[in-house]
Amino acid sequence: VISLLVALPVGIFSALKQDSWLDYGLRTFAIAGLSIPNFWFGLLMLLFTVSLFRWSPPLEYAPVYQDPVTALQQLIMPAIALGYRQAAVQARMMRSSMLEVMREDYVRTARAKGLVERTVINIHALKNAILPVITMVGMEVVMLLSGAVIIEVIFNVPGIGRLLIDAINHRDVSM
Q1: Rounded to whole angstroms, how far apart are CA atoms 39 and 95?
Q2: Is the pTM of this model over 0.90?
Q3: What is the 3-state secondary structure (H, E, C) of the chain?
């Protein structure tokens, strides 16, 4: 969810403002997300929040039904660490798909009919440009799960990844 909330606007604005300073900045954001592994980004987030803001997420796990505020504080940083790479991939896909769709004949026809640019983008271009991104989201679930193994250990979140690491450490072959 975090990756889609970030990736769609980043990809759309980057495509609409092609070759501007905003486009270069957003593409740099996306390339950085592809270049930095999610576990390293998680460690950097922990380092900067502790050193700059003197705050760290709670280390003891709190179930959502007992303490929702503490649970949210504990889960927001791992979600951002996992979502940043996904957002980078999806933003690049959204940008290239949007640029391709904006050059199609039906978009030119919609503009020639006198439609407002916002209507052309929202109704004609966005519907067709988002299809490859939705397909990519399905394929990225595997990467999300593989990254969650290490992120759960870094942020001390109990889950399947943590269970896998504990099974490896205890040589639990049946697990």
Answers
A1: 26
A2: no
A3: CHHHHHHHHHHHHHHHCCCCHHHHHHHHHHHHHHHCCHHHHHHHHHHHHHHHHCCCCCCCCCCCCCCHHHHHHHHHHHHHHHHHHHHHHHHHHHHHHHHHHHCCHHHHHHHHCCCCHHHHHHHHHHHHHHHHHHHHHHHHHHHHHHHHHHHHHHCCCCCHHHHHHHHHHCCCCCC
Six-digit token string for 101? 């769709």
Tokens linked to 124:
């004609």
Q: How far apart are CA 110 and CA 113, in angstroms?
A: 5
The residue type of 37 is P
Amino acid of residue 18: Q
Buried b (16+ CB within 10 A) or exposed e, 129-145: bbebbeebbeebeeebe
Structure tokens at 51: 């050193």
Task: Write the pLDDT tens digit of every residue in 47-94.
Answer: 888 888 888 777 777 888 888 888 888 888 889 999 999 999 999 999
Place of tokens 């916002």: 118
Q: How far apart, in whole angstroms, are the C-alpha atoms of residue 128 and residue 133?
A: 10
The tokens of 161 are what? 């990844």
